[in-house]
Amino acid sequence: MKKKAISILLTAAMVTAMFTGCGEADGESSQGSDSQESSSQESSSDEGSSQESTEESTDSSEDANAGGEEVTLKWAIWDESTTQYWGDIKKAYEDSHPGVTIEMVDLGSTDYMTVLATELSGSGSDFDVVTIKDVPGYATLVQKNAILPLDDYIKADNVDLTKYAGATDQVTVDGKLYELPFRNDFWVLFYNKDLFDAKEIAYPTNDMTWEDYDKLARELTDTTFGSQVYGGHYHTWRSTIGLMGVLDGEHTILDGNYEFMKPYYEMVLNQEKDGVVRKYSDLKTEGLHYSAAFSGGDVAMLNMGSWFIATMISNLQSGEYDSELCGNWGIVKYPHAEGVEAGSTLGTITGLSVTTVSDTPDAAWEFVKWVSGEEGAAVMASSGNFPAIMTDEVMNLITGLEGFPTDEASKDALNVSNLYLEVPYAPNVSEINSVLDSYHGSIMSGEMSVDDGIAKMNEEVQKILNQ
Fold it and tell me: What is the pLDDT of residues 48-63, one digit of tens each?
């Protein structure tokens, strides 16, 4: 599963409102905890007839409406009023494609994918393009034959899928791809430079194993009452611990055998025992958010998604975060297992698809391709968001943004070699996620031992896989 190394854009918003959708959809609170509910199926006859039109797709977005015919594309989104990039994309595309009108339909963020699936199941649906919020929802739409496979379009237009760092491979269904990503969030390691400086300990690097990380966290820990320093911090999501083991490219949450998670559960539980990190049970009881923990100034390192960069920058600038406590911060690449390529990390994607009911699938594809390409990436970056691909223009914008760490290690942390989705496509993954989440809680709360908890994961998931 090794992917061609590429740089994935990481951008930082100047206002937190820009990230309303992401901040609450990070890690396992969105895609990581949601699950895919369906298996791939052969396209219906209606889908097949719609797909025949892909053979006539044009080679450039300018050609899509060369005849000057007026085209309106109906596009399903969520949270239009609080997410700046929807409007930015609409304006930029309409400005560069005369005769095309983008009609956005806000379905709301709550249960968006469920509402969308219901809409597309109705006989009166007239969406042309739909936004795919997570892999589970994508699976449902594939199963319902609600979205078109894009392979013929991709081939005709020579779309380079390697720009997506392997993410598209993980949402390919029976050899077919039904979405293109336009947004990507991935995991990095945040750290408080002042806490390192106070102990005269060298900063973390962009090539650390989990053993290196564990040793460093222990060196930084101070258990003295009243002046505690925690070497690390883990939010309560399963992704913060269980998914450390998927970075080798050989394991996923779909395996049915989860022995590969054992070393990471043992590492974190031992850190809890030794006061290196706060206890899972305390975090659940207190409801302490990871942002409050890190901004409090007593956490040296935090493994978290790139979306948190926007929060750090905007909240420090607004004064919501005390710069004396956490203003001197940086990021490095996610730690990895021994023998795994540095820059391997977890990710979540947001994509676009063309519906099977669209009367203008060619024009819809041109929109999908544009938004998911370099032009769309520049628009996303202009509002401080995370495109699925990067350009030199956007990289320069981000590294020069006021508030982004200026050290070279933080800049290099933007370079991702292998991106492994928290939730790759598979049938019944919703049920699998539910099982893993349940026993994650049992292990971390002490209700079950690591061995017993993993044994139950294996047993219950095997039942699902054998259905």
Answer: 333 333 344 334 444 4
